[in-house]
Amino acid sequence: MKENIILWLAASAVVMLAFPWLAVTFVKGDAGMAVFFLLFFAVNPLYSVLIGAFAGKDIRHLWSLPIISAALFLMGTWIFFDMGETAFILYAAVYPALGIVAMLISTLIRKKTQK
């Protein structure tokens, strides 16, 4: 189980920290804006749902994964874009909400299928 937690934390660091850094570093101009929209509206929400679904396997031990992922997102955006920008706080609130909903749905489905 610890290996899975470390794997998901590393994946969170890549998605929430490395992807924005790569976008800022290598993509310029209008293409950069398209990449950011793709990250903020597709990749990050999908990742939040996936990590929430995984956390639903063992809610007692893994409940913090969606929250850690959102904290890494906020850290990454404030480091690579604008420190203290309040618009990113909204995203950082929505991502764990998506993860928590997915976690609860995953737990309910798991309980129904085990009976």
Task: Summarize the topology.
Blueprint: H1 2-26, H2 30-55, H3 59-62, H4 65-80, H5 87-114
Provide the low-confidence segments as ranges: none
SS strand fraction = under 5%
Major sheet: size, sense and barrel closure?
none
Radius of gyration: 15 Å
Shape: elongated
Count of β-strands? 0
Structural class: mainly alpha
Order of helices and strands: HHHHH
Oligomeric status of the shown chains?
Answer: single chain
End-to-end gap: 23 Å
Number of helices: 5
In percent, how helical is the residue content?
A: over 70%
* Mean pLDDT value: 89
Describe the structure.
86% of the residues lie in helices and 0% in strands. It contains five helices and no strands. Helix 1 (2-26) runs parallel beside helix 4 (65-80). It has 115 residues and is mostly helical.
Task: Give descriptors for this structure.
single chain; 115 residues; mainly alpha; elongated
Summarize the structure.
With 115 residues, the chain is mainly alpha-helical. Helices cover 86% and strands 0% of the residues. The chain is elongated and about 55 Å long.
